[in-house]
Write a structure and sequence with these properties.
The complex is a heterotrimer, with 1 copy of chain A (264 residues) and 2 copies of chain B (216 residues). Chain A is mainly alpha-helical and 264 residues long. In chain A, 50% of the residues lie in helices and 7% in strands. Classes of the chains: A mainly alpha (264), B alpha+beta (216).
Chain lengths: 264, 216, 216
């Protein structure tokens, strides 16, 4: 334990701060907890840890805590808990056992404390031995010029016969809907319809349903009918734009009717 | 063996001890070590060169070798074991849709030109897709088509047959089987009969699909 | 000797060739190399362990030595030649007493819970101490203890073994003596029924010491 330094003539207001700092000195700089303090105190007995007098050790510890109090050093709670426990242990060791008391005997408690001290000392010795070994980077060295393992990642592509069949089937099925693959026989272009209408329009002095103008052979098959209807409708729009035709539909989905406009 | 250091204060270590030293220094150094550097590190009176030569001979034929790099020395992997420094991992990936379709077209229509593949797929075929299939050893170049421009054709390889467990391109399931497997819509569409719009098909399917798909 | 690789496609390389291979791999790595890694890199059918054992014997007394580090192997310079490598020395942070004690407790009592470490040191373990040891790569988290609260345990790493030149935690100095003296036990304090035995040590050291230390 360190006695607080008196070198600095600190103002009175700093006393509390100094006290706190001193408490810290006892806790941190001095010992690593009450068990560590006990271990240090036990060395003053100059005997093997196994033959240590726990009663004497308890007295030494309590004396230390007392002194710390007289110096008005604040001890951390652990130290005070240990002091209370050692005071209890001391009374157990000194007083004849109470037959009514079911708790552990003073000897049992003392033996356990001795075990804890011996074990802590053993770990401390083990740590020292460990640190004294031939250590990597200090006594033993690893390869200074390691060679990197180049990782080569090869990607292998795979496909099954089923993948192949599915892909081909997909292509063949898609043919039905692909414009370029359509059978031209089933498609009427707007140009074709326009050409027809330019001829027919001369005869449309009054409103005519466009549907009646679809050519024969394009009315039965739905696909052919849709293609012809679309082509003819597009053609009427073109003619209307040219001002040669009027288009009329009375209501939604009603038949589309056309008639000639002006003179042809 | 703390003695080696003490002894060295008075006389040069014995040759085998010097060889141990150059071995340890070579091993632990991050760079090739010059003879001067060995002498700076080794006990007074040491002769690095004979020790290095002895070490080099000791490593002859081993997994690593002691080599001179300019006027410095280093330990290197034996050249024949370089393959151990490569770690190959193989990753299997599914062939892309574009590649699978292209492969299917080549398989069913071979020999087939790129233009024909594009016409069937309805999109242009990137050079990479055919390259990939050729690199995989599944597609090869066929004879040039004797049409204007003499375009190259593509066909499948032995490796392709191997991989897909076919003994010949004729073993490819015909349209009939595709339909039976539920892979094709039941309604046959015009042109579904693998008819000969493309000369390629004709060349092959007259033989293959032609004689296996009487239902077309 | 390009044949060595080709031949390996059909049969395992001869033993002396395998020894060259593990030698090359060990020299090329600064880190210990696991047996699994050897097998992944060596030709099919190779047996790394006999090759490593042969290599270890070959390097006995040389400037570098072949050492086992847990399940891995490494080449390290002979400890008596450390003085030659002063330039290579990495200045390691000096560990606090708390850290070295905690490390020793983890090493000798592993797998050990934080509460057990605190019980042994008689003081609470700051988070930073264990963090520091884990950051240095010497301590790792172990399995959770199957006791109420399922606390995590701490154990040492391969890096710990490598740093301190241990082949396994069984080789910790004085382990047998400590165990014989009962100092690795976690005795409950009298009157504290809850304590109980920790399965920790038993898990590890009963097995490890028990079956390898007839001389214990």
């Amino acid at each position: 334990m360190r006695v607080p330094s008196r070198e600095e003539a600190a103002p009175v207001v700093d006393i509390a701060a100094r006290m706190a700092a001193e408490a810290l000195i006892v806790d941190v700089d001095g010992f690593e907890g009450p068990l560590d303090l006990l271990l240090m105190l036990s060395r003053t007995q100059k005997v093997d840890l196994r033959r240590i007098s726990i009663l004497r050790l308890a007295e030494q510890y309590l004396a230390f805590v007392e002194e710390a109090r007289s110096l008005r050093l604040e001890l951390a709670a652990d130290y005070l808990v240990m002091a209370a426990w050692l005071a209890f242990l001391k009374s157990r060791l000194l007083l004849p056992p109470d037959p009514a008391d079911e708790g552990p005997s003073g000897e049992d408690l003392a033996a356990h404390l001795a075990f804890q001290l011996e074990r802590l000392q053993a770990m401390r010795d083990a740590a020292a031995r460990l640190m004294a070994r031939d250590r990597l980077g200090r006594d033993r060295f690893a390869r200074g010029l390691p060679e990197d393992v180049t990782r080569v990642r090869e990607v292998r592509y795979d496909a099954t016969l089923l993948d192949l069949m599915q892909a081909y089937a997909r292509l063949r099925t898609r043919d039905d809907f692909r414009p370029y693959a359509m059978d031209r026989r089933d498609v009427m272009s707007m140009e074709q319809a326009l050409e027809r209408l330019r001829g027919l329009i001369r005869f449309a002095g009054d409103w005519v349903e466009l549907a009646t103008w679809l050519p024969d052979g394009w009315r039965g098959d739905p696909a052919r009918r849709r293609s012809a209807a679309a082509a003819h409708f597009a053609a009427t729009l073109e003619l209307a734009k040219e001002g040669r035709l009027e288009i009329r539909q009375d209501e939604t989905f009603a038949p589309i009717r056309v008639r000639r406009r002006g003179d042809v | 063996m703390a003695t080696s250091e003490e002894r060295s204060l008075f006389e040069a270590p014995p040759p085998d001890e010097q060889e141990r030293m150059v071995e340890a220094i070579l091993f632990a150094s991050a760079e090739p070590v010059s003879v001067a550097e060995f002498h700076a590190r080794m006990p007074h009176g040491s002769e690095a060169l004979p020790a290095l030569e002895a070490l080099r001979r000791r490593y002859e034929g081993r997994g690593v070798e002691v080599v001179r790099v300019g006027d410095a020395w280093a330990i290197r992997t034996a050249p024949d074991l370089g393959f151990l420094m490569r770690r190959e991992t193989v990753e299997t990936r599914k062939l892309s849709r574009a590649a699978t379709e292209t492969l299917a077209i080549v398989a069913y229509h071979q020999p087939v030109t790129r233009a024909e593949i594009e016409e069937i797929r309805g999109v242009s075929v990137s050079r990479g897709t055919l390259d990939q299939l050729m690199e995989m050893g599944w597609v090869r170049l066929g004879r040039r088509r004797e049409t204007p421009g003499r375009p190259v054709t593509f066909a499948t390889t032995e490796g392709f047959l191997d991989h897909f467990g076919l003994s010949s391109p004729r073993d490819l399931p015909g349209l009939k089987e595709l339909r039976a497997a539920g892979l094709l819509e039941s309604r046959p569409s015009p042109g579904d009969d693998a008819g000969g719009e493309t000369p390629g098909q004709a060349e092959m399917f007259d033989r293959s699909i032609g004689d296996t798909a009487p239902d077309a």
